[in-house]
Amino acid sequence: MASVASTYARAFADVVLDARLDADRAIAELRAIASLLAESLELRRVWENPAVPAKQKLRVLDVIAQRDNISKQVRNLIAVLIDHRRTHFLEPVIRQLEKELDARLGFAEAEITSVRELAGAERQEFEAQVAKLTGKKVRAHYSEDASLLGGAVVRVGSTIYDGSVKGQLERMKEAISN
Q1: Is residue 22 classed as helix, strand or coil in its secondary structure?
Q2: Mind giving me the DSSP string for 96-156?
Q3: Domain limits at 45?
Q4: What are the Cα distances from residue 85, in Å, to 10, 18, 21, 73?
């Protein structure tokens, strides 16, 4: 499954960059279609049923694309998925596409967990520090965890920067026990 999603994601990333599309808009359009597909059993039945003629499937897609102002490139990707009966791979394709575009555009995904919700200035400071550490622009996702007691934990890929009070206490405990 991962290779199928990766193949479509890499190909569509090429399209996004070659056509100079707004990557965030393209992903938002794909998410909108994925949401429609997840919510509508009828739509899934039409697009996934080999007995439904391809022209009919594409007419349904065109109606949706026109109604929701979907770009031609996104519409074409969905058409390819429909033609190859791979619409069930749409969510993994979107996830891989985000990773692929982030890598190509020099972004790092950062998961920042703190004991409380961070204000705008605090978020900017964290993002600036992560950017300095990674040498990349940062797309940060925030969450809260009261068990941290204070500070924050930042995860970028497989690297974890633990500046939490809980983490400091655990390191002290380990040092004392050795």
Answers
A1: coil
A2: HHHHHHHHHHTEEEEEEEESSPPPHHHHHHHHHHHHHHHSSEEEEEEEE-GGG-SSEEEEE
A3: 2-103
A4: 19, 26, 26, 18
Residue 37 shares a structural domain with residue 90: yes
Helix crossing, 90-105 with 2-18: angle to 10°?
Answer: 50
20 and 38 share a domain?
A: yes
Express each pLDDT in 74-124 by its tens digit: 999 999 999 999 999 999 999 999 999 988 988 888 888 888 888 888 889
Same domain, 113 and 69: no
pLDDT of residue 2: 66
Q: Is 118 left (phi over 0), alpha (psi -120 to 50) or beta?
A: beta
If you average pLDDT over every residue of the chain, what do you get?
89
Average pLDDT over residues 36-63: 94
Q: Are residues 72 and 111 in the same domain?
A: no
Percent of the chain with pLDDT over 90: 53
Helix, strand and coil in the chain, % to nearest 5: 65, 15, 20
CATH number of the domain enclosing 78: 1.10.520
Q: State the Cα–Cα distance between residues 131 and 27, nearest whole angstrom.
A: 23
Q: What is the pTM of this model?
A: 0.73
Last residue within a domain, chosen from 83, 103, 123: 103
